[in-house]
Amino acid sequence: MAVTFSDLHTEAGLKSLDDFLSSKTYISGDQLTKDDIKVYAAVLAKPGDSYPNASRWYDSVSASLAPSRFPGKAVGVSVCGKGAPVEAAPAKAPAADDDDDLDLFGDETEDDKKAAEEREAAKKASGKKKESGKSSVLLDVKPWDDETDMKKLEEAVRGVEMPGLFWGASKLVPVGYGIKKLQIMLTIVDDLVSVDTLIEEHLTVEPINEFVQSCDIVAFNKI
Fold first, then answer.
1. What is the separation of C-alpha 138 from the centre of its chain, rounded to a whole number of angstroms?
2. Bias category Acidic residues: which stretches (predicted)?
3. Which DSSP string do the residues of 198-216 spell out, in sequence order?
4. Which residue blocks in the chain are alpha helix, DSSP H?
5. 54-84 confidence digits (pLDDT tens)
6. What are phi and psi for residue 106, nearest 5 degrees?
7. Of 8, 47, 74, 141, which one's alpha carbon is 20 to 30 angstroms from that of 171?
């Protein structure tokens, strides 16, 4: 059964997450799943000592992201509530409506509907009957230095538009010496978007390379 968390940028939201994790290692049980990645992306920073269960979980997910191995079976999760601004680089709202719910790669979102439309269009154009799959990707976007305008960097990244590409939640993560990187979620239609092509031909070329030094794939999961 899917679990819903609200307003994870607030103390009340973190308290709810901490209580939920009091008897669990991860969101959906004892193994890491994509549910943990969705919730992790909505938590702007490591929870403090007042939330020991959430803090322990956050450290576990952070440590597990590098190898990108998710052996557990996900049961589905959504995160609700208007997200707080990402410090100096607030993420653009994915929809034009004043919707207070943030649903990270959940079912029946506007992005999912648009992705379905893209798949149908691609099928008709190519004559294929096979439905294309989708993947969720967690991407690290690194600036040149601590003087890089991270707001303009995020705007440039989100300004990249391709059929089958849908940008999601984001946050700034400190990397040292006053430098922060942009960590951003995206959903892709597999037959329409190559992440390598996105990085090499769109995110690290002019004019975006004025802000972006490099991009790394942190996690890549089939949906």
1. 5
2. 96-110
3. HIIIIISSTTGGGTEEEEE
4. 11-20, 34-42, 52-65, 110-126, 150-158, 195-198
5. 999 898 888 877 545 555 666 666 566 544 4
6. -80, -175
7. 74
| pLDDT tens digits along 134-187 | 999 999 999 999 999 999 999 999 999 999 999 999 999 998 888 999 999 999
Residues whose CB falls within 8 Å of the CB of residue 72, separated by 6 or more in sequence, listed in order? 26, 28, 29, 30, 31, 32, 33
176 backbone dihedrals φ, ψ, rounded to 5° = 120, 155
Distance of alpha carbon 47 from alpha carbon 43, whole angstroms:
8
pTM above 0.70, yes or no: no
Please check whether residue 50 is in contact with residue 90, taking contact to mean a CB–CB distance below 8 angstroms. no
Token pair 């973190």: residue: 14
Structure tokens at 113: 């509907």
Contact assessment for residue 187 and residue 105, using Cβ atoms and an 8 Å cutoff:
yes
Of the candidates 51, 34, 197, 152, which has an alpha carbon nearest to the alpha carbon of residue 104?
Answer: 34
Q: Tell me how far apart the alpha carbons of residues 38 and 168 are, in angstroms, rounded to a whole number.
A: 10
Cα gap 170→41, rounded to integer Å: 7
80 strand-pairing partners? 6
